[in-house]
Amino acid sequence: MQESIGTLVVAGVGLIGGSFALGLKRAGRVGHVIGVGRSPENLRRALELGVVDEVAQDIAAVAGRADLVLLATPVGQMGALMQALSTTLAPHAIVTDAGSTKGDVVALMRAHLAPHLARCVPAHPIAGSDLSGATAAQYGLYENRKVVLTPLAETDSDACNTVGALWQACGARIERLAPLEHDAIFAAVSHLPHLLAFAYVDMIARKPNAARCFDFAATGFRDFTRIAGSHPEMWRDIALANREALLDELATYRATLEQLEAAVSTGDSARLTETFDTARAARVAWNQRFMRQG
Ligand SMILES: NC(=O)C1=CN([C@@H]2O[C@H](COP(=O)(O)OP(=O)(O)OC[C@H]3O[C@@H](n4cnc5c(N)ncnc54)[C@H](O)[C@@H]3O)[C@@H](O)[C@H]2O)C=CC1
Ligand SMILES: O=C(O)C(=O)Cc1ccc(O)cc1
């Protein structure tokens, strides 16, 4: 296992990839960082801010120099990137990612990096925000946060432990899940709420009196909708990549809404009270635990 790495190639120098680079730099765990991106302006900012030391627009041109490649683009971009880097990768190089979905990333690794699977470590940092781009990259984003690894049967323990050690150097705690369980859990606690927030704000924005509604919206609206300010491409890709698990959660949510609709319509106050009581207790308990341990 390596405690530090020589050259890191980050494909997608945004909030997540940029914060990983900054975390490793601050911990003295990386020698040189090459940022790969499709937006020259974002790459220029990343260089200027010291998030990366060198930039490139074509991953194939720099992948051969990597000791570790982090894919931190929207998940819809990852297949093409894997294909592009597959021919030039050094045999020892580790390929990892930060995508919010794992079943699709594992399948893409199998499709594009078959001879290299021992060095593939799918991963998902459970930290972030509604901000994006290199200017959003920050030190300490992963401090006391979980990172979930979903290694393949073929992944060697050296690669897995190296990726784990690098995330730990950024302050994170490592967890492991099977990709299927990962995608089911995150459909429930991350992907569904983002879809709901986008849908709800879209609904309000289309009302004839939308401007008046927004005028009077306050903290409850702000708290429920913050994540509707997240990156649309990133969330489109997540919704499509995890569609089966997300559709299951949507069906359950729709049924729950229908029950509440019936309770409102029939004036079933016992039902409303029971639902609100249960939800409140669960939210209070979750928040206390999250504040203690992330
Ligand atoms: N935003 C969040 O809170 C979290 C995001 N993630 C995952 O991390 C990944 C990155 O998300 P963020 O950093 O938030 O997004 P971001 O939008 O801040 O950064 C992504 C960067 O990738 C670049 N990019 C897009 N296509 C590319 C391509 N083909 N080649 C090279 N660069 C490309 C974009 O120009 C952008 O600079 C996504 O897969 C997302 O699902 C995971 C955990 C949290
Ligand atoms: O904006 C927020 O608070 C988030 O929920 C951040 C987030 C977004 C995507 C992930 O896969 C993990 C964390």
Automatic annotation (TrEMBL):
- Protein keywords: Amino-acid biosynthesis, Aromatic amino acid biosynthesis, NAD, Oxidoreductase, Tyrosine biosynthesis
Query: Domain Prephenate/arogenate dehydrogenase spans what residues?
Result: 6-294
User: What EC number(s) does its UniProt record assign?
Assistant: 1.3.1.12
- Name the family: Belongs to the prephenate/arogenate dehydrogenase family.
The record's listing under InterPro entries reads:
6-PGluconate_DH-like_C_sf, NAD(P)-bd_dom_sf, PDH_C, PDH_N, Preph/Arog_dehydrog, Prephen_DH
According to the UniProt entry, its GO molecular function terms are: NAD+ binding; prephenate dehydrogenase (NAD+) activity; prephenate dehydrogenase (NADP+) activity
The record's listing under SUPFAM superfamilies reads: 6-phosphogluconate dehydrogenase C-terminal domain-like (SSF48179), NAD(P)-binding Rossmann-fold domains (SSF51735)
The pathway is: Amino-acid biosynthesis; L-tyrosine biosynthesis; (4-hydroxyphenyl)pyruvate from prephenate (NAD(+) route): step 1/1
Phylogenetic classification of the source organism: Bacteria, Pseudomonadati, Pseudomonadota, Betaproteobacteria, Neisseriales
Class of the enzyme per the UniProt entry, highest EC level: oxidoreductase
Task: State the name under which the record lists this protein.
Answer: prephenate dehydrogenase
Instruction: Look up and give the organism this protein is from.
Output: Gulbenkiania indica
A Pfam match: PDH_C
**A biological process from GO:** tyrosine biosynthetic process
Entries under PANTHER family matching the protein: PREPHENATE DEHYDROGENASE, PREPHENATE DEHYDROGENASE [NADP(+)]
Catalysis performed (reactions): prephenate + NAD(+) = 3-(4-hydroxyphenyl)pyruvate + CO2 + NADH
Q: Which domain of life is it from?
A: Bacteria
